Structure formats: structure tokens, C-alpha cells
């Protein structure tokens, strides 16, 4: 059976007044929004931290034979992600081609 979603709907619920609808809604005790504390950097306080003597070591691996650097996003990608729209001197990954 086809339903006309544009037709006005009339039912027993439509006969209620605004005051009756307001009585059904539970009163909120606090207007504050519940904020998830795990979303941000709320737990880190680095204002007094002296990081001048900390050494960071990073191993940099050059691009491998089966990898290329996308000329749009400048990320190193595997050859399987090379777009058909890329040219020889301008390789573009599938993500940037669309």
C-alpha cells in the first residue's frame, strides 16, 4: 500500500495542547551539556615542564622502490595507490585524484 508522506496527519496525539506536551517532557535538572573528558588534552599540563634536555630520536627511512610521493598531498604511498590520472613526472594517489 502506498503512503502519501505529504498529506497532513491527524491523530489523537495532535489534539493535545502545548501545555499538555510540556507536562510530558521531563524537566532537566541541569542545563549543562555532558562533555566527554576523554576528547581533548584536559589531562596534560606542560606549562612548567622543561623539555630542553630531552632528545628525540627518529629513524627516517627513504622511499622504497615500490613507493611514490604524491604531488598533491606529499605523502609517501604504495604503488598500488597510484592513480590512473597521474603522469610520469606528476604522480598522484587515488585519494587526491577524486
Structural write-up:
The chain is largely without helices or strands. It is flat and about 70 Å long. The chain has a two-stranded antiparallel ribbon with strand order 1-2. It has a domain at 67-97. Helix content is 11%, strand content 6%. The relative contact order is 0.09. The protein has two helices and two strands. The longest helix has 7 residues, at 18-24. Strand 1 (67-69) and strand 2 form a beta hairpin.
Strand order of the largest sheet: 1-2
Supply the helix-strand structural class: little secondary structure
Residues in helices, as a percent range: 10-25%
**Mean pLDDT across all residues, rounded?**
78
Rg, alpha carbons:
30 Å
Distance between the termini: 41 Å
Order of helix and strand elements from N to C terminus: HEEH
Give the biggest beta sheet.
2 strands, antiparallel
Query: What fraction of the residues are assigned to beta strands by DSSP?
Result: 5-15%
Q: Number of DSSP helices? A: 2
Oligomer: single chain
Low-confidence stretches: none
Question: What is the 3D shape?
Answer: flat
Instruction: Tell me the total number of β-strands.
Output: 2
Amino acid at each position: 500500500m502506498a503512503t502519501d508522506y505529504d498529506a497532513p496527519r491527524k491523530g489523537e496525539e495532535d489534539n493535545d495542547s502545548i501545555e499538555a506536551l510540556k507536562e510530558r517532557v521531563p524537566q532537566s535538572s541541569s542545563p549543562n551539556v555532558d562533555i566527554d573528558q576523554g576528547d581533548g588534552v584536559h589531562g596534560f599540563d606542560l606549562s612548567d615542564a622543561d623539555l630542553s634536555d630531552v632528545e628525540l630520536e627518529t629513524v627516517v627511512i627513504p622511499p622504497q622502490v615500490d613507493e611514490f610521493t604524491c604531488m598533491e598531498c606529499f605523502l609517501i604511498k604504495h604503488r598500488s595507490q597510484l592513480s590512473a590520472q597521474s603522469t610520469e613526472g606528476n604522480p598522484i594517489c587515488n585519494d587526491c585524484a577524486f
